[in-house]
Amino acid sequence: MSTVSQNTFPDLPRSATRLFRHTVSLTRLHVGAICFVMALCAAFAGQVQAQSYPTRPIRMIVPFAAGSATDTVARVYGQKMSESLGQPVVVENRTGAVGTIAADLVAKAAPDGYTILVGTNTTNAAVMSLMKNVPYDPARDFTSISFLGNLPQVLIINTSLPFKTVEEFLAEARRNPEKLTYAWTNSVSRVAAELLAGMSGVKFFNVPYKTGSGAIADVISGQVNFTIVDMIVAYPQIQSGKVRALAVTSAQRIELLPDTPSISEAAKLPGYELMGIFAAFGPANLPDDILVKLNTAIVKAGKDPELIARFKTMSLNVETGSSQQLEQRFAKEREVWSRVAREAGIKPE
Prior knowledge:
The protein contains twelve helices and ten strands. By secondary structure, the protein is α/β, with parallel strands linked by helices. It has two domains: 58-150 and 276-343, Bordetella uptake gene, domain 1 (D-Maltodextrin-Binding Protein, domain 2, 3-Layer(aba) Sandwich), CATH 3.40.190.150; 152-266, Periplasmic binding protein-like II (D-Maltodextrin-Binding Protein, domain 2, 3-Layer(aba) Sandwich). Helix 2 (69-85) packs across helix 10 (288-302) and helix 4 runs parallel beside helix 12 (323-343). The two termini are 54 Å apart. Mean pLDDT is 87; it is low at 1-10 and 41-46.
């Protein structure tokens, strides 16, 4: 802003010029004071909002269909979180595009704590290795809230197939490359199958599906030969005898299927392990006070005996933690999934 000099208005008497300069100075002070007060009001309003949060229901966005493992995790955690936060946590399923529709919705939502994502390996780690045009940046467009847990997957086949072991299954794949077909719904199921193929030196033919339940239905009917899917979706079908479990993707056998070996054990593939991961994320720039409230509610829920017992029946390992721990964990996950997808021969589509 230009200054007012004695020569600005040469025709005015000196006293009038002094009066004008004094008025301008007062005006500047007045404007500065208004700006300062407005800034204080904005900061105070934000502080009050964070202190009173939440005052309305919270939307928990799920990138996969109702009945999926991610949906189950969201609903169980959401119920417990609502008890702590004093507001309903409403689960919304926004499916499609390998989970990116839901993730993009949250990435572009207002950072006010009323829209959060139950993210997975797919939406927040592997997506850059699977898709060419991802509408968000998994590293920059989210605030990490808390880890939720992890879940082993299981390789299941149509019961009319003669294979009783992974060795027999892979022997057929070696004899007839790409004859065995598999259904996949997300990065975990696809990469798990392709990693098995790559490490075993075989080739499968992949068939994409929108939901895990749809994939299993076609395994049961014989439309496809097998799928690798999470235990929450697969276990009821295994119990009923509609599908046959050959192996699990965890490093060790699991309690629910004590007679089913791990893939690393059965196929003699040391180092083979792939788990489904679940975590809560908000939009970038979530206020610290709101982040703390959400993290506290999740950590408290993760210690609830009822929640732990319920997830144990699904082989889901409950694990929560700080925002910083989750951010560091998924930074590593993105590196891991990039390498695994590359080793599995998967190219972004």
